[in-house]
Design goal:
107 residues, mainly alpha, 2 strands
């Protein structure tokens, strides 16, 4: 069997290790509660599980709703107009798609 191996210590390794250490420090500073940590892990697991963008949007708004009873709305920049538009929310799912954001929500 042949496996792909790179040089023992490529220059990129230092960068990767630095980012991993920084991320570890960041997570320690965040000091998430148990439910916040579970919510984050569930989001990352489910975001990788589904293949469509639509399901990613659903995961993004419904994980906070189900885990923390927190309503959310996902806004994206419309490619054609360059304006912020609603994509999905935890109350109406895609029923809000394309709607303008409420006043005060800006890029």
């Amino acid at each position: 069997m042949t496996i792909y191996c790179v040089k023992p210590d490529p220059p990129e390794l230092a960068s990767v290790l630095s980012r991993i250490r920084k991320k570890k420090e960041d997570y320690e500073k965040y000091n998430f509660t148990a439910i916040q940590g579970r919510t984050l892990r569930a989001f990352f697991d489910l975001a990788q599980e589904y293949e469509t963008l639509e399901n990613f949007y659903r995961v993004a708004v419904f994980v906070p709703k189900i885990f923390m009873d927190f309503d959310t709305c996902l806004y994206l920049v419309d490619f054609e107009s360059g304006k912020l538009k609603r994509a999905c929310d935890s109350l109406n799912a895609f029923g809000v798609c394309g709607m303008d954001p409420p006043e005060g929500v800006k890029l």
